[in-house]
Specification:
The protein has three helices and five strands. It has 171 residues and is an alpha+beta fold. It has two domains: 30 residues; 131 residues.
Amino acid sequence: MKPQRSYCMWVFVLAIVICAIVFFTSVLPTLPGHDPHTEAYCSSGMRSLWIAIDLYADSNAGNLPALSQWCTSITNYIIMEDLRCPLDKVGPCSYAINKNLPGTIDEIPEDMVVFFESTPGWNQVGGLELAVTDRHKGLHEKTFHVLFADGTVRWIPAEEISLLRWKINKE
Ligand SMILES: [Zn+2]
């Protein structure tokens, strides 16, 4: 009796292990927005945007490009793939620049929003109205990537969008 019971238990454990393997290798990667690779690709692209803006400023006495031409201005410092989130099927650029940025890179407070995930386009300048918060899904139903002036990309739940520093002067 005893050996048979432990045999059943092992079959049960084996079945659970097989189900887990199938779930993690086949089902999980197909769930929309649950792809760590895509998220890493998106945030590393945004870091490249910041590096490109920094290089542009270095070559232009610390000045930021004209915001209405920001994509066009940094094309020499970036590869086109980095301008696009892998979950954006339209492109060519999946990000917008904050319309309230000052003229020079040194004037931007470290916690101020520089780039954020936006509707697809080119040279997009704006604020909350352009933000796309449902491209990625995290623990929250709606999350999106934001790059701050300290060079970090953070994963922001949509409901916190208005709490971010969008302007130089805090109100
Ligand atoms: Zn993205």
